[in-house]
Write a structure and sequence with these properties.
The complex is a heterodimer of chains A (about 200) and B (about 100). Chain A is mainly α. Chain A is built from seven helices and one strand; from the N terminus they run H-H-H-E-H-H-H-H. Chain A has one domain (about 30-190). Chain B is about 55% helix and about 20% strand. Classes of the chains: A mainly alpha (about 200), B alpha+beta (about 100).
Chain lengths: ~200, ~100
């Protein structure tokens, strides 16, 4: 069989195989939806608790974020076991989000030490998750994430000029635009592609 | 002058494997099996040939007590693949010329 393998066959094989392995968007939006909903619920419940004058209004954050961290860890571990091929896009995403996590901890640690005000911390965190979606969008070539990232940066600046209480609503708005909308778009795209 | 096509790559299955690996960071044996449609035995033999030539790295490990084989193209393999594609392009150019004359 190998003796009849012509140059035209070679070209066909290369084109076919590259087509098969080229990076398809395999992201089903799970992580964007998980974190989108958790941050939305945390920011809105924090806002409501402040309005009703509850003294531990910040409580939704540690509870929901820890829960999200555990859920993400389990989902990431399962995903890692399922994938049979690792593309350079996967590696770039992994490094991006680990870098995000490390930077987030540094910002939170700095804020907890009292070196930076919570208003600035808030703006930095919004800008940081904006960076996460902006770069992810670039890697996946998915415009809604890129626009979501840019929108988050604008919101990060806006929070510096509005009362603290309303910055929670700004967080809620940016998370809907930067995580939930692109997350649902990725999900529907993934479902459509998997039926083909 | 027409360049010689690398005989190691000028074979359907080995070329399939190299074309799949050139675009990704690493791939499991089962992925290569699914995408090429080859038999387990034949794929295994061709992978060993590519490995012996230093074109790919083969890593054997375990996952959930099952053996797991992962393949990755080496820099030498990428170079060989690029050279093969170049030679192929040259061949097709010559072919076109000879047909039009």
């Amino acid at each position: 069989m190998e003796t009849t393998f012509t140059e035209q066959d070679s070209l066909r094989v290369i084109t076919e195989m590259i087509e098969n392995s080229k990076a398809k968007i395999r992201d089903n939006g799970f992580f964007y939806l998980l974190w989108g909903w958790l941050v939305l619920i945390a920011s809105l419940s924090n806002f409501i608790l402040l309005i009703i004058d509850y003294d531990k209004a910040w409580l939704p954050w540690p509870i929901l974020m820890t829960g999200g961290g555990i859920a993400s860890g389990i989902a990431g571990y399962r995903l890692g076991k399922r994938i049979k091929v690792r593309t350079f896009f996967d590696t770039a995403m992994i490094y991006l989000w680990y870098g995000f996590l490390a930077t987030l901890f540094i910002i939170l640690f700095t804020a907890a030490k009292g070196n930076v005000s919570w208003v600035v911390t808030n703006a930095l965190i919004i800008a940081l998750y904006g960076l996460g979606t902006f770069v992810s969008g670039g890697i996946l070539n998915f415009k809604p994430l890129i626009w979501g990232g840019i929108f988050s940066w604008v919101i990060a600046i806006v929070t510096l000029f509005i009362p603290d209480l309303y910055s929670l609503l700004a967080v809620a708005l940016s998370i809907v635009v930067a995580y939930l909308i692109p997350g649902y778009m990725l999900k529907s795209r993934f479902n459509k592609n998997s039926h083909v | 002058m027409f360049k010689e096509l690398d005989p190691l790559l000028h074979s359907q299955l080995r070329l399939q494997v190299m074309s799949l690996l050139v675009g990704v960071e690493s791939a499991e044996f089962t992925y290569l099996l699914e995408e090429t449609g080859a038999t387990r035995g034949n794929l295994s033999v061709q992978i060993t040939k590519l490995k012996d030539a230093g074109y790919i790295d083969v890593n054997k490990s375990f996952r959930n007590n099952y053996p797991l084989t992962t393949c990755k193209i080496t820099p030498k393999g990428v170079k060989a693949f690029e050279k093969y594609v170049e030679a192929l392009q040259e061949y097709l150019k010559l072919d076109k010329k000879s047909r039009s004359s």
